[in-house]
Amino acid sequence: MNEEHLHAPSGAYALNALPDDERAEFERHVRDCPACAQEVRELSATAARLGSAVASAPPAGMKQRVLGEISTVRQLPPALAPGVSVPQPMSGRGGRLPRLVLAACVAAATAFGGVAVWQHQEARQAEEQAQRAEQRAADMARVLAAPDARTVTSGKGEAKATVVVSREENSAVFLASGLPELPSGKTYQLWFADGGTMRPAGLTRTDGGLVMEGDVGDATGVGVTVEPAGGSPQPTGTPVLLMALPT
């Protein structure tokens, strides 16, 4: 690395993108060049700040566009005839690239890393969701297949509900069909009835099945009410469905 280009690699150095020999030579230069040392600190801080923001989703199709352009970018400079030289870009400090150009390089490299991190997070979230779905299915199957499972059904208009309860498993499954669509900000809430007391047992907005939350215990019935999104500690309206549990 000749003296004319000693200042140039600060951006590549901040991204740890220099070969070992050039990295060692640039580190020796930085020890005696306060301007380069300051620029490396600023670019490294910029890369760190950009890296901490990777939770924001990249633009749609960004990865495909970048990969599609790679094949059109020259990897090596063209061969020159002997004695022909190429003018070097200048910014007033011995051939150093303009600060905005270096910052753009840092930002681009960090963004590509952000795409990889974002994809990893998406894959991990999908895996976690699949695991939760498998666990819910296994819990439901355990109740439905229990030797002591008992069923009770109730209906009101087109809305139908079935509860399968297993005292041995101390759990119950709620199955529904034909539930009227609710307005925004409302949800169906399930309840276990313990005598005259109602305790929350889960939320749902659609038809289907779910394992009710909490133990069956000594519950004698199950109710369904319409509540604000997020549920309520106690029913706020008349149950839309109410059924007694088999003993």
Task: Provide structural commentary.
The protein is built from five helices and eight strands. The chain is of the alpha+beta class and 247 residues long. The strands form two sheets. Strands 1-2-3-6 form a four-stranded antiparallel sheet, with helices on one face. Strands 5-4-7-8 form a four-stranded antiparallel sheet, with no helix packed on it. α3 (34-51) packs parallel to α5. The relative contact order is 0.10. Residues 50-56 and 89-95 have low confidence and may be disordered.
Structural class: alpha+beta
Major beta sheet summary: 4 strands, antiparallel
Strand neighbour order, sheet with most strands: 1-2-3-6
Gap between N and C termini, in Å?
87 Å
Can you tell me the residue ranges where pLDDT is under 50 for at least 5 consecutive residues? 50-56, 89-95
* Proportion in β-strands: 15-25%
Taking Cα atoms only, what radius of gyration do you get, to the nearest Å? Answer: 33 Å
| Number of contiguous helices | 5
Average pLDDT across residues?
A: 74
The helix fraction, in percent, is: 25-40%
Helix-strand string: HHHHHEEEEEEEE
Query: How many strands appear in the DSSP assignment?
Result: 8
Shape: elongated
List descriptors.
elongated; 8 strands; four-stranded antiparallel β-sheet
